[in-house]
Known about the structure:
Elements: H1 4-29, E1 37-45, E2 50-52, E3 67-75, H2 90-93, E4 103-111, E5 128-135, H3 140-147, E6 152-153, E7 159-161, H4 176-182, H5 210-234
Parallel strand pairs: 3-4
Antiparallel strand pairs: 1-2, 1-3, 4-5, 6-7
Amino acid sequence: MSSPRTVLAGVLTAVLAGVFAAALSAAGTAPAHAAGYRYWSFWEHDGGRWTYATQGPGTLRPEDGDVLGFRFAVSEDSAEADRPRGTGDFEEICDGAGAREGSKRIALSIDFGTRADAPGGERPPGGRTECAHVPEDGTAAEALAAVLRPLRYDSGSLLCAIAGYPRTGCGEQVSDSAAATAGASEGTAYGDSGASGGTAVPESGGGPSAGLLGGGAVVALLAAAAVRQARRRRS
């Protein structure tokens, strides 16, 4: 007849194997953070909020009094892109800038992002607002070039840098961990180029997972039951 110690060892071995197999299976199927892209997004202000532009700056021809925004950040796509944190108030940005014959006034709000958004070795400048005068048929790209040179574009006309920032790179894909870190960047004060964007909070606190803790409880209960059963058989 098996001793209580032998029964207990068998139960522990079987249950622990099942618990760890389940934990490994769950870890293997957990969803990973989607990779993001580091780029300048383009926005329009409708008087109440920023909305993602439906045209690029090279083709959009804004009206006199329009407000446009640009935000540098790491984002998965346009639906998840971070909005500019600067003002969208035309009167505030173009304060005192009167209309000129044959031209229009375009207000620009430029958000260079946070330290978490920045490429390695670079520090984002503070946010800027500018009031550009461009010809009546001028594009958003012309308004940007009028006040925030130097600009940099790639061979496909993708906007890569505003006012020389960033020095290198253009819409590059970043690692999963960098994209997750950048997701915490919204808390950084606008214009505070020295502040860190923070770090992403992990899904678990670094301790045992709920699955393993539950498995430990099961082990304890089954072990106690095995000992009681063995004692009853001996008696």
